[in-house]
Amino acid sequence: MVSKSSPHKSALKEKEGISQPESIGKNSVAQIIQFRKQQPSAQELIDGILKGDKISLSRAITLVESTQPKHLEKANEIIQACLPYSNNSVRIGITGVPGVGKSTFIEAFGRFLTAFGKKVAVLAVDPSSTISHGSILGDKTRMEELVKDENAYIRPSASGETLGGVARKTRETIILCEACGFDTIIIETVGVGQSETAVHSMVDFFLLLKISGAGDELQGIKRGIMEMADAIVINKADGDNIKKARMAKTEFNRALHLFPPKSSGWQPKVTTCSAITHDGIAEIWEMISEYLILTKDNGYFSERRKDQNQHWLLETINEQLKNHFFEHPEIKNLLEENKKAVHDNEISPFAAASILLEKYFR
Ligand SMILES: Nc1nc2c(ncn2[C@@H]2O[C@H](COP(=O)(O)OP(=O)(O)OP(=O)(O)O)[C@@H](O)[C@H]2O)c(=O)[nH]1
Ligand SMILES: [Mg+2]
């Protein structure tokens, strides 16, 4: 209500009105400038990584995962500088269906390793994580102790459009982790699509995690995965499960002997363990150590890494050529038109492909 004695004090005039705020405050501009200044140079990151600084490592990995050309340029410079320091390690791939206990196993195994001075980095190739942004991240509860461990570093899966892209980033991340002093790299993957093949091509030792079922152990395992495995570990061998796990072990052993010998000279092994009670965990490390002695002696270890490097050279080229093609604005439009035309039987897929490729290479 407006009182009669002070008519000018109406609700409309009561407040002086504040000055229009600038759309970008001076303070925020200053902060942004400060932040940009704080972005360490490639050399600073390299120095940090080589000193074992995890923050520099994380920042460099973020550059690797970026899609901005400027970041990638910086990332390449860092990787190149880290490369000479990255060979003194063992890279272990772990796969298994959801729920088999990969995360629990990695927690137990990782803690076992750091307890005797190993430095463990855990990475993931998880093409399904594009949306959820990395299952390892949600897993940090499963890796409660490892996350806090001074000698461990856990990095969730890079997100990306394609498995190829995610895998390349993981592969580059391995190099950075190794230069940072991590000597045991564990790469987890869920058996989705071709992700096992991708992980197999970046590790020295490939471990398939299983649980014992109802006597039909071999059912539902892709032959290719059995062939890739250097070890099959039957997890959850605790409590009532122990006997079933032993039976599964016999069955897997028999099956593995049917495969032709590996060029590594290694006969794949089957063991049981419990990620909860830690039974059998030490034996797994013993087994991997045996493998390393054998393959380093017979030269397979270093030959394989060289082959893998060549493989990654070709993979990277393939991936980038594909990206460059599909991201090309003119191609994008033309592709849509041609997809429709192919769908409507107006043109053959081969003729349409020729049109697109000719346009691209012109
Ligand atoms: N009894 C028993 N349970 C286990 C063992 N290892 C894991 N588990 C349980 O199995 C469940 C799944 O374990 P996770 O480690 O999350 O399995 P995962 O393979 O990482 O699963 P995803 O991340 O979904 O692919 C959890 O409830 C664990 O507590 C084990 O050795 N023994
Ligand atoms: Mg998990």
TrEMBL record:
CDD domains in the record: MMAA-like
Molecular function terms from GO: GTP binding; GTPase activity
Listed InterPro entries: AAA+_ATPase, GTPase_ArgK, P-loop_NTPase
Alphabetical list of Gene3D superfamilies matching this protein: 1.10.287.130, 1.20.5.170, P-loop containing nucleotide triphosphate hydrolases
Enzyme Commission number, as recorded: 3.6.5.-
One cellular component (GO) term of this entry: cytoplasm
Domain AAA+ ATPase: residue ranges: 88-298
Annotated keywords: Hydrolase
Renumbered residue ranges of the record's region Disordered: 1-22
Regions that span the bilayer: none
Family: Belongs to the SIMIBI class G3E GTPase family. ArgK/MeaB subfamily.
PANTHER family reported in the protein's UniProt record: METHYLMALONIC ACIDURIA TYPE A PROTEIN, MITOCHONDRIAL, METHYLMALONYL-COA MUTASE
Name of protein: Methylmalonyl Co-A mutase-associated GTPase MeaB
Organism the protein comes from: Flavobacterium microcysteis
